[in-house]
Amino acid sequence: MVTEFYCDGANMKTIGEDLKTVEEYLKAAYTKAETVKNEIDYDGKWSGNSQKTMAAFLDLLMQYHKAFIHGEDAPLPKGIEHLEELMKSLEEFYTNWKEYEDLGKI
Prior knowledge:
This protein has about 110 residues and is mainly α. The chain contains 4 helices and no strands. The relative contact order is 0.11.
């Protein structure tokens, strides 16, 4: 198990960009899944047990997908939001570094 984690500002920025890319791909995949689900449910090419089985499988997959990227507590957008807050806080900290150094003189 890793006991230490080091990530500099450049790597954190890259992580943030990668997370946003992942989010875009997941949203696009979800949109495509909605299209496929509608085709399975309504185009008439699927029927019987194969239609029910595929519709149920896709529905479960879409629920998982939706929980991951959509909604108030979705982990991916929350992670991006918190990473951006951290980056902003670190930027403010280092921008005001002189003030922090001056505190040590008091």
